[in-house]
Amino acid sequence: MSTPDLIEPFNRDFLHHPLGHDGEVPFVLRHGELIACFHGLRLHTRLRSLLARDGGLLGHVADTEVFSAGGQPLSAWTPYASVLDNSAITHLDRLIRTLHVLNALSALDGRPLWLGIHPLHVRAVPDAHGTVFGSILRRCGLRPSQVVLEFTDTERLGRAHLSKAIAGFREHGYGIAFGVRGDDDAQLDALLALRPDAVRIAQGALLAATLSSLDRAELAQRIARIHDAGALALLRGVGDAAQRALALELGADGWQAAEAATTPSQERSA
C-alpha cells in the first residue's frame, strides 16, 4: 500500500486520544508531506543521510521537527511536555515513529531507517517490546529488520529494564544503536556490554577532536573500543572536507552529515 492509502487506517487507530484536540486528525497530507498533529502541534519528518566511510549510503535517520499551530519552530522535545501518563507517552512515541515510517517509505531503497525511541516510552512499556510497532511496520510493508532503533538518554532507565527492552526488540529483529555524547567512558562501556549494532557519537566529540590532539586521541580510543565490541562507530555532524578526513583518520565507519536547515514549507510558515 502507498502512503495515501495508509493514512485513513492509521488515523482511525490514533484518533480519539485524550490529549488530542477536539476535531484534531492525527495524520494530514499537505503539499506532498505527511504531518502528524498532536495537542495542537504539527510534527514533521526530517530525513538525513547516514553515509559510510567510502561514500556509500548506510541508511536514513529520521528526526522530528516540531511547529506550533502558527508555524513557529519548537524543540523536538516539546510534544513530550504535554505527556502526562504512560499511556500518553506510548501513544505519542508510536505516533512519531509511524509518521517517520510513512514519510520514509519511498526513500528507503533497501537501506535501514534509523528511528529514535524515547526513554520514557521504553520505561513505560513493561514487556513485549517491539510487538505493537512491528505490526505497524508490517502494515507498511516493512520488517523490523529494516529498522534500527536508537536509544539515547539511557541513564533514565534502569540497567535491568534497558537490557530486557533490548532483548525484546532483538527478538523481533530490530537493529539496536545507542546515541552517546562521547566523553563518558563509563557510560560507553556499560552500553557496549549490551552488544549494540552501532554507536553514534555526538557532534561535540568531533568538534573537540578538531581543536585538541588529546581529545582526538581519546575519541580514536573510544572508536576502537566500539569496534572491539563488534559495533559500528558513527559520528554526527561531519561537515566539511577537513572533518571528513578527520573522521576517516579516527577510524569511524560512517557519519551523519551536518546539513543546513530545510526551507520551511507552506504548512510550517502558515
UniProtKB/TrEMBL annotation:
Stretches assigned to the EAL domain: 58-256
Pfam name, any one: EAL
InterPro entries named among the record's database cross-references: EAL_dom, EAL_sf
Domain of life: Bacteria
The protein's name in its UniProt record: EAL domain-containing protein (Putative c-di-GMP-specific phosphodiesterase class I)
UniProt organism field: Plasticicumulans acidivorans
Lineage per the UniProt record: Bacteria, Pseudomonadati, Pseudomonadota, Gammaproteobacteria, Candidatus Competibacteraceae
